[in-house]
Amino acid sequence: MTFPPLTRSIRTRLFLQLAAISALLSVALFLVVRGLAETAAEATQDGILSASATSIADALRSEDGEITLDLPYSALSMLGTTNDDRVFYKVEVNGETLTGYDDLPAPTDAPTISRNTFATFDYRGDEVRMVSASRTVSAGGVPSNVLISVAQTRLGLAAISQRISAIATGVGLVFFLVATALSLLAARSALRPLKELTAAVTRRGPADLRPLAIQPPTELEPFVSALNTFIARLRASLLRSEDLIAEAAHRVRTPLATVRAKAEVTHRKLNKPEHRQTMREMIRAIDESSRSAGQLLDHAMVTFRTDSLATESIDMGELVRETVARLEPAADLKDATIRCTIPKQPPHFTGDRILLQSAIQNILDNAIKYSPDDSDIAVTLTAVDTLRLDVSDQGRGFGDTDTNTLKARFSRGANVDDIVGSGLGLTIADEVARAHGGTLAITRNEGAKGACVSLVFPLQ
Amino acid sequence: MRFLLIEDNANLASAVAERLQLDGHAVDHAGTLDDAESCIAAADYDLILLDIMLPDGDGRTFLQSHRRAAKSTPIIVTTARSEVSDRVSLLDLGADDYITKPFDFSELEARCRAVLRRRGGVAANRLTVANAVLDSTAGELQIDGVGQTLRNRELRLLEVFFTSPGQVFSKSYLLDRLFSFSEDVGENAIEVYVGRIRKRLEPSDAVIETVRGLGYRLVAKQ
């Protein structure tokens, strides 16, 4: 089932539905409030009209066989309002007008003694409400039927009704706004578990393949359990590929090692220069492929680890010293000397030891590879403003190569075709630096030949 | 030096052994951890080369038991995996160093030398010609008791001559011993180093002679 873009959001849909419901409820509330209030106002007017009619009826007298009426002042004054409402009345005795407005229409619904009737109609240009009451008065022993009608314009009622409408509108509007705000909150809170689930999945690195530990609402349980099953499958498949990579490395490198050893033996035994040259080229090709394989593995490992960075406190000075010691034999072979300058108390750095070691090793390895014989490689650790490790060699430098491109995968300098390399070393170092919030800086040595590769980290 | 090579791949083992023998080392080969234990019981080795993946057990187990038994023979692990994390744990388990397959034999030799030097004094490798003594473990040339510390290439070059005094070595042979396969150097480069070791040997009765058209040899002065 697909929805148009606006309503693809569950929240919007939920909100719109709730808002529509509250709008309906608001209108109903408005109608009910206004209806009740108007009925009440009308009932009040009717009550007063009835009282007025009753008080007129009570003032009826029978004198000398004639029915007389001394209209009580209170009968009309009780109807007095501020709204200039006019009052009309008529008293009829046996169909003859005794007093009042002659043209006031007779009620369509004839009243009885026990029941007054009410009517609403237009009279003299205004809408009026009229009550009619009926009495039987005995005049000279003859019972006479007296019909008392009192009518009042409804200006006051209209004013009240208007006020009530305004209040009802206000109440309805406030209700609508409050209900809408509440439905917004409700929509948001109903969807919070979904948001939390999303955050829980987003927060973790791609390498974090533990099942989700959050307690989902019942409705989301099937989804979370499906997700966990998927994560488990992914983890199994990743573990398999890791094993596969290790196994593949073993399978590829062992025969390569055999070939290389045999090639060296053969090279030693050969006499013809052209044969020896061929053998050298073979050995170099072997070195190149094994180096690429190794760095691809390292790179995969770095990518894997940067996603779920281990954090431990590291003595950077010690780490640099260890790594230098590890690579010294390789430098020694070319009579290159690694000179280490490390402050007495280098700051502790929090990061992933294995990754940092890999980065330093790759940079140093490059420096040694490109160093001329009998040269110096300066390794300098400083901790002023930033934690900075400079590895500076006296090699050929980078020539015309754009140093930024060297960080890209499989990218190598324009001047290094004769040296075995995979183009991954600086990529690895760069990725490690960035994973630790630092940068890899590649510069040319000012005024001297050679390159300087630096790892720069913010001090923690 | 005497090596124990623990490696299950017979092809690789024979190639490595042959290559090490070319440089004058003695190599015993053990295909399994069991074999290795009997070799260690029967002979003293200067160095053990241990493959980490073996048919009858993990090389790590061997490392641990070897270290627990407080045996002092240094161990260099050869591994086909190159994960840095792998290397770190190897060193933690007591390996003296590790080298990734396939390895450059001159690098292996450099690492062996470094490990032995770190261990200090074990199996001092002394070669004597006339009054010059070459201690290849310490990387020192002693003449009448006065020691000179040698740079790596000087040492390796002197080692070649001191191992076979009187033998003529061609420039190309010496070149192979001094430079790696990835370095493109002309034969003239060797003259620089021969010049350096001649200077080193000056105070002694040993001298490097040029044999025209053939190469160089080390002889004692008449």
From TrEMBL, chain A:
CDD domains attached to this UniProt entry: HATPase, HisKA
This enzyme's EC code(s): 2.7.13.3
Transmembrane segments: 164-187
Single GO term (MF): phosphorelay sensor kinase activity
InterPro entries named in the record: 2CSK_N, HAMP_dom, HATPase_C_sf, HATPase_dom, His_kinase_dom, HisK_dim/P_dom, HisK_dim/P_sf, Sig_transdc_His_kin-like_C
GO cellular component: plasma membrane
Pfam families: 2CSK_N, HATPase_c
UniProt domain HAMP: residue ranges: 188-239
Keyword Transmembrane helix in record: yes
Keywords, sorted A to Z: Kinase, Membrane, Phosphoprotein, Transferase, Transmembrane, Transmembrane helix, Two-component regulatory system
Source organism superkingdom: Bacteria
Protein name: histidine kinase
From TrEMBL, chain B:
Residues covered by the Response regulatory domain: 2-116
Phosphoprotein recorded as keyword: yes
Residue list for modification 4-aspartylphosphate: 51
Residue ranges for the DNA-binding region feature of this UniProt entry: 124-220
Annotated TM spans: none
SMART domains per the UniProt record, alphabetical: REC (SM00448), Trans_reg_C (SM00862)
Occurrences of domain OmpR/PhoB-type (ranges): 124-220
Keywords attached to this entry: DNA-binding, Phosphoprotein, Transcription, Transcription regulation, Two-component regulatory system
Gene3D superfamilies: 3.40.50.2300, 6.10.250.690, Winged helix-like DNA-binding domain superfamily/Winged helix DNA-binding domain (1.10.10.10)
PROSITE patterns membership: OMPR_PHOB, RESPONSE_REGULATORY
MF terms in GO: phosphorelay response regulator activity; transcription cis-regulatory region binding
Superkingdom as given in the UniProt entry: Bacteria
UniProt key word Phosphoprotein: yes
One GO BP: regulation of DNA-templated transcription
Assigned GO CC terms: cytosol; protein-DNA complex
Protein name according to UniProt: Transcriptional regulatory protein QseB
Natural source organism: Boseongicola aestuarii
